[in-house]
Design brief:
Layout (H helix, E strand, L loop, with lengths): L13 H8 L4 H15 L3 H13 L3 H14 L4 H15 L8 H17 L7 H18 L4 E4 L5 E4 L5 E2 L4 H13 L18
Length: about 200
């Protein structure tokens, strides 16, 4: 019997992560940087790079949150403070990335309706309508206090009431790659596949 051994963890230095952040691939950098930030939270250069990568994705809300932290870190250091203020000025000009709750609920209803039309999830006819409304009410209650933001490439990230960011990953890119690798070859992968995309809508 063969046992699959877990891969050895990859160890990255600060320099490795900074280089990753300078490559212009925010989705590759941000999940790694989120882990590193726990250790480097008082590092102004790293915080600026983190904010800039959010800004590259049009995620103004997250970028501004980290710029505020950067401004506090650089307080009393004129050169660093000036650079932080320039970054803040550039990010402030970005479009608002927040998704209003009404838009989220409309998208959720549309997603659930599409599933119901395919016989998935919430039943058919009146049962489907009731199921959609029940799910919408549940989502609305659960969404209280959350901030939902849309990146310029359509990905959705969310900030919890506790201030933690969720979904810092290229979900759309991953889904696209999955489809290209697995769903375009029906003769090779004939089994049904479910792509989850209802919650968050």
């Amino acid at each position: 019997m063969l046992l699959a051994m877990p891969p050895d963890p990859v160890r990255l230095t600060r320099s490795d992560i900074v280089t990753l952040g300078q490559r212009g691939e925010p989705w590759a950098f941000l999940p790694v940087a989120a882990q590193a930030l726990r250790v480097l939270e008082r590092d102004p250069q790293f915080r600026a790079l983190y904010a800039a990568n959010f800004a590259r994705l049009g995620l103004r809300t997250a970028a501004m949150e980290h710029i505020q932290a950067l401004l506090e870190l650089t307080n009393g250091e004129p050169t660093s403070q000036s650079e932080a203020e320039q970054l803040a000025s550039a990010v402030e000009r970005l479009a608002d990335d927040r998704v209003p709750l009404d838009d989220q609920l409309a998208k959720l209803r549309a997603n659930l309706t599409a599933l119901a039309e395919r016989g998935v999830g919430v039943g058919t006819g009146r049962a489907a309508e009731n199921g959609i409304e029940d799910a919408t009410r549940q989502y609305e209650a659960a969404a209280s206090g959350w901030t939902v933001c849309r990146a310029s490439d359509g990905n959705i990230v969310r900030r919890s009431p506790a201030g933690e960011w969720h979904g810092i990953v290229d979900a759309r890119g991953n889904a696209r790659a999955f489809v290209e690798q697995h769903l375009v070859c029906g003769s090779i992968y004939p089994e049904p596949v479910t792509v989850e995309g209802v919650n968050p809508p």
